[in-house]
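Retro notes, item 3 of 5
We never archived the inputs for the FE2/S2 (inorganic) cluster complex last cycle. Fixing that now. Sequence and ligand:
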Amino acid sequence: MAKVTYGGLSYECGGNSILDCLTAQGVPVPSSCRAGVCQSCIMRVVDGQVPQKASGGLKPTLIAQNYFLACACYPETDVEVVLPDAALGKMNTRVIRVEQLNADVLGIWLKPSRPLEYKAGQFINLFKDESTTRSYSLASVPALEETLFLNVRRVPDGLMSSWLFENLKPDDELTISDAAGDCFYVTGKPEQNILLIATGSGLAPLYGIIRDALLNGHQGMLSLYHGSYNPDGFYLVEELRQLMLAHQNFKYIPCVSDGEATDGYTPGMVLDVAMTKHADLTGWRVFLCGNPEMVKTAKRQTFFAGASMRDIFADPF
Ligand code: FES
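Structure as it came back at the time:
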């Protein structure tokens, strides 16, 4: 009979779901519908395998990270499981390079003390001290770079960003968490067109996702719209233009919302520009990152333009 291990203790499942098995033992697993719909009972398997049916309805990016629904999971073999938050460990990193990418965005390159398993576009938590933590998306691609690349936006009076802008230097040590999040590229549909929209440092995960997709031979269109008030707000411009020259299926459209646009910058709010160009998103995959209001509105608009909810990935960092 299959056993479920959680928190160092093992329980006989006895033909019950993992949710029923664990809650009967007093383990506080969040749940609501108990019917595989609401996804509130999501857990992650860290040892063993759960039946395929247990991940029905989850996004491919979550399935790729071994997430499943505890209420829909009737294990056939022994498994060890954790709640999503408990899956994140911590590690030390050394600062390799610090460079301002523009007036408001700091580029930080980190070397982890042990290999970090991650996908470009996921986020890590950065710890300043016990009580100050912030999440930052990874702009690096594991297969291309040994160092982790973060883009930190300066937040007025922000505890973490002010500290990083004013103090961080090469050879400093920083503590980060393992990577998490479902905003990353999944292989398997190389012909699918992909729309990517970012404001500010929301570019970070998309810079990683685009390079990861191209590295994996993605053949569908990759259309990146990056928004800023004025041309000074952009960064990685040369890198993205070079990428566009090297790959016919990648288009980079920097959009300026304030004043006249010149020199290859498109005038208008980034979401308006993108949605005018892409009125029909049926069959498209969509990545949205940056300002939370923009991300919220863009989710709705891209869904109404035909993109499936399963194909819309968002990151409000
Ligand atoms: S409790 Fe709703 S999906 Fe499991």
